[in-house]
Specification:
The protein is α+β, with helices and mostly antiparallel strands and 347 residues long. Helix content is 24%, strand content 41%. The strands form five sheets. Strands 1, 3, 5, 8, 10 and 11 form a six-stranded mixed sheet that branches. A hairpin with a 4-residue loop joins strand 15 and strand 16 (225-232).
Length: 347
């Protein structure tokens, strides 16, 4: 247990000493962005036909008190955990509908209250099937760790990229959209607190975003229901996978488990069962992790006996064997002493 604590401490120290990290931030941007002739403040929507070319005009304004730099670029819209959306950073080359937009990333500097307009060209492929296709135009502001520290007054070792996204939604005969979803291969992992999380992948193989609803039931080998949870995914975008995470509230003891799922979308229902096993090694690892985060897990006396009875028998057997050996040695020593006493009496 102490060894694990030392390793964790070394890991935390290494993170502290690491120079900088970069991540996508959702904090307030120094800019505002809007699309001309759009009914929505967060995006652009238009009905189009295969082969059409669409012009999207974007205006970005620096609302801060300093000259600021940003990069504006087209990208994909990806499904986030439990649905919703996320946007790749500017270095990521679009692989979905973001590649329909012709322009490449452009780095721009704006003075306070200065604005600039951009025109993006969207080419709808001629073989596009009926559906709803969503890309994004993102203004990404990079803030180095030193500047973030100076601005907030709090020390940080983390660079940030504040993203300001505008979605581009193109409808192609949307009433004829294809509705199709699959559930991918489920998986599970043990978190830093020792608790287990099961991930359920929702794969959108249709041509319009989906908001599936599901029921998850976790059962022990004897059929006892441990967890039952209902959920609704926010949005699973076309050609993307949205993960739902089932967080088990208690540490699982060794044994076999079944996670039954029922997922509904449109008028279809997907059902299945995920079988997995928790080993004694998994339990020991989970208990160590729980202890490391200050939440020690008390297995309980009888549960401890139940899970580790083999080791208990081994330890008891070794103790009994040692006691037998010690008794034999003591008896031999006693006989030897008695023999020596008799010899002395004779002489």
């Amino acid at each position: 247990m102490n060894k694990v604590k030392i390793v964790m401490l070394m890991f935390l120290v290494s993170l502290t000493m690491y120079s900088t990290r970069t991540y996508a931030d959702t904090s307030i941007s120094s800019f505002t962005a809007s699309i001309e002739n759009s009914e929505s403040s967060t995006g652009f929507m238009k009905s189009v036909k295969p082969g059409d070319e669409v012009k999207v005009k974007v205006k970005v304004n620096n609302v801060s008190k300093k000259e600021k730099e940003f990069t504006i670029y087209p990208t994909d819209v990806l499904s986030d955990l439990r649905g919703g959306w996320t946007y790749p950073l500017k270095e990521t080359v679009p692989s979905l509908f973001g590649k329909w937009i012709k322009e490449t990333p452009e780095k721009v500097k704006l003075k306070p209250n200065e604005s600039k307009e951009f025109v993006f060209t969207v080419n709808v492929p001629k073989d596009t099937k009926p559906g709803q296709y969503i890309a994004a135009i993102v203004s990404q502001e990079f803030t180095p760790a030193e500047e973030a520290t100076a601005t907030s007054g709090m020390s940080t070792q983390t660079n940030s990229n504040t993203q300001l996204p505008l979605q581009v939604v193109l409808n192609v005969d949307i009433e004829k959209s294809t509705r199709k979803m699959d559930i991918g291969k489920l998986s599970h992992t043990f978190n830093n607190d020792g608790l287990l999380t099961v991930f359920v992948p929702h794969i959108n193989k249709g041509t319009i975003l989906e908001k599936p609803q599901g029921i998850l039931i976790l059962k022990a080998k004897d059929g006892t229901v441990l967890v039952k949870e209902t959920y609704t995914m926010d949005s699973v975008y076309v050609n993307t996978t949205g993960l739902y995470d089932l967080n088990v509230p208690n540490i699982l003891t060794p044994g076999k488990y079944d996670l039954e799922y029922e997922v509904k979308y449109d008028e279809a229902t997907l059902r299945g069962t995920y079988h997995f096993q928790v080993t004694t090694a998994d339990l020991m690892n989970a208990m160590d992790k729980a202890d490391n985060v200050g939440n020690p897990y008390d297995l309980g006396f009888w549960a401890f006996i139940k899970e580790f009875w083999i080791w208990i028998i081994v330890v008891i057997s070794i103790i009994i064997l040692l006691m037998i050996v010690i008794i034999i040695l003591l008896l031999r020593r006693r006989k030897k002493d008695e023999k020596e006493e008799r010899v002395k009496e004779v002489t």
